[in-house]
Design brief:
Number of domains: 2
Structural class: mainly alpha
CATH superfamily of the largest domain: Tetracycline Repressor, domain 2
Number of helices: 11
Strand content: under 5%
Shape: elongated
CATH class of the largest domain: Mainly Alpha
Oligomer: single chain
Radius of gyration: 20 Å
Length: about 220
Amino acid sequence: MNSGSLVRGPGRPKDQAKRVAIVAAANALFMERGYAGVTMEAVAASAGVSKMTVYGHFHDKAALFGAVVRAISNQMVAGLTSFDETGGKRDLEPTLVAIGTALLGLILSPRVVAMSHVLMGMLMKDRVLAESFYEAGPGNMRASLARFLAEAAERGEVAVDSAQAAADDLISLWEGDMPKRVALGLVPPVTQADIEARVRRGTRVFLRAYRIGTG
């Protein structure tokens, strides 16, 4: 019994390492080949694991695709979580600017822009896959920002009738049409200074509308 637990324990980190390798391999393949061009066998070969191992972690390709999208989304959400750890002690405006800069920097990164080229046509043809993508990616990011703004409202820093609508407003002010222009190759690569300037302006406009005691 004792030896059995010794054998089982070390297996867990290895399984997690394999899962990470599978998601990373799938991410690269989806960007290179598109959703239809990727097989679970190809992912297994690229990750250096068996096909059975891939299916042990993800029951089908749609579930694997969702995990890839969520991994990217979680990088965005991590920015919200880390900035929220201050418990509201930081001033709201610079905190939102820092969050927006992190999120927009990721959205406009070459990796995410390249993935968007692969995704859009494919998602429009598959509603189930589109819903999975939205829930794991944009929906996840929007929900996290809405929670952050709801907590700011509870602290009396902003007045919002709907935290989700406020999150939509703020993301729209941050992004504008820049993601579309970048994806279409109509503008040169966006610099960090460009991102910060856009986010600062969008945040100021947002706070003029939502901040208590202003306007």
